[in-house]
Amino acid sequence: MQRARRGEITSAVIGGTKTIFRYMGLDKIERRCEIAFDPPPRQLSKSQALYALQLQPGDHFAMTMTVRCTDSAAPREPAAEVFSEPYRAARRGAERASSLGGSVTSSNELANRMLHRAGADLSMLVTETPQGPYPYAGTPWFSTPFGRDGLITALEMLWLDPALARGVLRYLAAHQAHIVDERNDAEPGKILHETRACEMAILGEVPFGHYYGSVDSTPLFVWLAARYFERTGDAETIRTLWPNIEAALTWIDKYGDRDGDGFVEYYRVSDNGLTNQGWKDSADSIMHADGQLAPGSIALCEVQGYVYAAQHGAAMMAKALGRRDRATTLTDAAERLRQRFEEAFWIEELGTYALALDGDKRPCKVRSSNAGQVLASGIAAPERAQAVAATLMMPEMFSGWGVRTLSADAPRFNPMSYHNGSVWPHDNALIAMGLSRYGLKRPALAIFEGLFDAATHMDLMRLPELFCGFPRRRGMAPVLYPVACAPQAWASVVPFALLQANLGMELCFDKGEIRFHNPQLPRFMEEMHIHGLELGDASVNLRLRRRGADTEVAIVSRKGDVSIRITQ
User: Are 353 and 487 within one domain?
Assistant: First the structure.
């Protein structure tokens, strides 16, 4: 960013073994980066450590370079901790990566590399907070907690790692807004969009110290809480979070729907905040069919689905906690929303749902991936879900590598844009989960196979935050988006989310049952093993094998009381 003023940078070489860079910020906090070498180099400058080596056959040389970043606002650590804690943290991360990536293996070595890389990347991004593990959004631009990103990451990974969801829920509950703060787009009950502790946030040059400009984080928080409860039966955590859940539901009714039309809208209050506050938060991402940007308060289609899922999920949790009247109220609210949504958002001539309603309640009649995310919530009528699926698989929407964010026939389509024609893996995973919910496995498999093929062309088989939406050509790799985050948390979990979607897998704690609805393995997998899949105190090892058009599921071993149910 271009700033009117900056702090002062200095550097020094100390004792021929250490280079220290210092930045004294305008916030009067000194931030340091120390680079130490053992053994000392022959020459050390601000930019180079020079070693001269002569090695005979069989000889070896070991050099340790330690990089330590600190600031004067943090307490000074004991010398022993400076070196030992990073190694312990790295070891814990490696163990976590092994458990995640190693929990699923297949007959395809490339698929195994993709899964292990996904597990390792997620491990690298997960940070321990006082409330539990939290997946920082991505590097290099978003190495900090984001509400939406953390919630979707946890949702897509819930079947394999419910502890991550618990950490996300507890962290966001601890940072839930309690007052109206227009500068930070904060309102009581609203869930965090982003938090940063950088110089510009401290000085107020950007509003992201604790920023709440996200219309979807709040319903996603309630939805994830409900899914976590179904997955784990952890009533104690839900009871603890219930005041936060109620506050979020109150925000949906009071602040989210200011005009009382039954839909949750957003508008920017802070001049420094985000213009668009859904997941497509580029300034030009919400438009009409003629390319004109949508004015006024915006009601996004997928956000209404999130609210529907939140209300249904909250009703289930309220009933489990003995709050039957509240459960009835929430169930009725969800049904009213479903009916209003179908009337206002369905666009018959497009065969899909409108991207959004603008401030005048005019539908944005463009085909977008947002309508695919609607399916994940279950708000869509079954016959319309089939129409949405057909639209998503049109060549204007499906590039061959994945579903584009915007149809190629839209005036603002640009395959190299951030949100207007690119392919986002996490978006595709949510779409696949929605397709699976309606039993539409063929397009869900097409998404999985397209993204897998894309990953084979990418460094380390790592799916990035996004890539360009050019059509797939024989002998050509997908075009990378040059400044995409890699790794990005909600992209890292995509292979695991796509597996769940195509297997139609549900883990139901109250039934002690793992369900598979019409399980399908992609063409690049003949066989897959799931190791140590836990449900309560029980665990199971499973083998899945493709047999023609069907996939068989076999229990390899089992501990405790857990059963498998397969439906078609």
Answer: yes
Report DSSP letters for 403-463, one per residue: BBSB-TTSTT--TTSSSSS-B-HHHHHHHHHHHHHTT-HHHHHHHHHHHHHHHTTSGGG--
Does any domain span residue 85? no
Specify whether 397 is located in the same domain as 280: yes
User: What pLDDT shows up at residue 97?
Assistant: 56
Residues 299, 290: Cα–Cα separation, whole Å: 19
- Could you give phi then psi for residue 368, rounded to 5 degrees? -145, 165
Q: Distance (Å, rounded) from C-alpha 192 to C-alpha 172? A: 7
What residue type is assigned to position 308 of the chain? Y
List the beta bridge partners of residue 370: none
In contact, 396 and 408? CB cutoff 8 Å? yes
pLDDT (average), residues 197-202: 87
| Among 299, 434, 419, CA closest to 357 | 299
The pLDDT of residue 151 is above 60: yes
Domain count, the chain: 3
Tell me the one-letter amino acid at 520. Q
Strands 210-211 and 194-195: antiparallel
CB neighbours of residue 254 within 10 Å: 12
Please tell me the least confidently modeled range out of 130-139, 221-230, 298-307. Answer: 130-139
Tens-place pLDDT, residues 486-544? 999 999 999 999 999 999 999 999 999 999 999 999 999 999 999 999 999 999 999 99
> How many CA atoms within 13 Å lie on the side-chain side of 226?
24
Residues contacting residue 172 through CB under 8 Å, at least 6 positions apart = 147, 150, 151, 191, 192, 217, 221
Domain that holds residue 42: 8-72
* Same domain (yes/no): 28, 102: no
Regarding whether 494 and 549 lie in a shared domain, the answer is no
**pTM for this predicted structure:** 0.91
The half-sphere exposure of 61 on its side-chain side, counting CA atoms within 13 A, is: 12
Tokens standing for 537? 């105190």
The answer to whether 507 and 514 are in contact (CB under 8 A) is: yes
* Domain presence at residue 55: yes
- Can you give the pLDDT at residue 100? 59
For the cut 70, the answer to whether the pLDDT of residue 271 exceeds it is: yes
Same domain? 364 vs 216: yes
Q: Is the pLDDT of residue 90 over 80?
A: no
How many Cα atoms sit within 13 Å of 542 on the Cβ side? 24
Element (H, E) at 425: helix 425-437
Q: What is the pLDDT of residues 101-118, one digit of tens each?
A: 458 999 999 999 999 999
Residues 380 and 426 in one domain: yes
With a CB cutoff of 8 Å and minimum separation 6, the contacts of 519 are 502, 503, 504, 505, 544, 551, 553, 566
d(CA 141, CA 143): 6
Q: Please state whether the peptide bond connecting residue 39 to the residue before it is cis, i.e. omega within 30 degrees of 0.
A: yes
